[in-house]
Amino acid sequence: MSMLINMNITPDPQLEDSYFSKLASSFISLSKEITTKKNYSPFMDFDGANGVGALAIEKLLPRLGQTLLLTLHNADTASPNKLNKECGADYVKTNVAAPKGFEPTPNKRIVSVDGDADRVIYSYVDSQKQFHLFDGDRIASLVAGYLMEMVKESGLDLRLGLVQTAYANGNSTKYITETMKIPVTFTSTGVKHLHHKALEYDIGVYFEANGHGTVVFSNNARNLVLQAMNDEKLDETKRRVILRLKQVMEVINSTVGDAISDMLLVETVLKTRGWSMEDWEAAYQDLPSRLMKVPCQGQKRDRDSGCRSKVFQTRWSTERD
Fold first, then answer.
1. CATH fit for domain 2-134, picks 3.30.70, 2.60.40, 1.10.287, 3.40.120
2. What are the C-alpha distances in Å from 117 to residues 87, 88, 179, 265?
3. Which residues cross the membrane (predicted)?
4. Which of 50, 47, 55 shows the shortest CA–CA distance to 124?
């Protein structure tokens, strides 16, 4: 949808309706299966970056009923100069700060998308006004762990892996490989590289630290899920798990980074686990890091790094050599 709007093409209302209905119905179906919410709360603030993500949420929200109770902020899409200005996923990630435009409620999670709604970042501000960031690495580990559990419980012979770049936080990699026992592959920065590498798995999870990513499923994975659904000999426990996996696949937009579907995927996992933001944060502790933009005066910008290699170069850590 964001691509169509950026190209000044009016989206087909029927396609939009089908898209939002599919996302909402799959998310609601998954939510109905969860009986114990524990520390999870459906209340959240949505930072629309004054872009198309705000428009999408306005159309999706009525379809979600009480399953997700969003308060929309930064939704002024009529003022181009406000797009991503002191708000949105890029601002939150780069500045390690809550978006402007509203006063954060202590311990209430904030979901920030960027202007064209292909990145998503989570955050919250605690009762001591301390800011907490949950970037693409956090999202990737959360999603990969959830999917791996379903793969194991289903008994399906599926190879799941996670793809990261050199920008990934080292402790996220350690947690994924050592605690969750999920294989991690590293590739160059840029979604095109991550997506291509993720296709080597039956279920490939990839998220850049900036919140851009998704999950891809091979034809083999989709076929095995459908075959298992039609297997009359399959026991009921495994059948329920496989049905849940199928519904999760329907929530995910595998073709492109889609912040709205990524958000619903994260909410599904948090609700299933019964986690608050504090619970999610306790999974592992990030190594200290800071994302900065390096000026490229007089240089031709590189699409992946932002600068020529002689100006700025990313190196693998010693743990990854």
1. 3.40.120
2. 13, 9, 31, 15
3. none
4. 47
Domains 2-134 and 137-254 share a fold: yes
Query: Cα angle vertex 129, ends 123, 130, to 5°?
Result: 55
Which run of H or E residues covers position 125?
strand 120-125
Alpha-carbon separation of residue 29 from 24, 26, 33, 57, 67 (angstroms): 8, 5, 7, 19, 10
The 8-class DSSP code of residue 262 comes to: H
CB 275 within 8 A of CB 39: yes
Please state which architecture CATH assigns to domain 137-254. Answer: 3-Layer(aba) Sandwich (3.40)
For the chain, domain boundaries: 2-134, 137-254
Please state the length of the chain: 321
- The amino acid that residue 291 corresponds to is L
Closest by alpha carbon to 110, among 131, 94, 84? 131
Alpha carbon distance 194, 191 (integer Å) = 5
Q: Report the pLDDT value the prediction gives residue 198, as an integer from 0 to 100.
A: 97
How does pLDDT run across 164-218, given as a tens digit for each residue? 998 899 999 999 999 999 999 999 999 999 999 999 999 999 999 999 999 999 9
The CB-based long-range contact list for 287-292 (8 Å cut-off, 24+ gap) reads 287/169, 287/170, 287/171, 289/169, 290/96, 291/93, 291/94, 291/96, 291/167, 291/209, 291/210, 292/94
What integer pLDDT is reported at residue 253 of this predicted model? 93
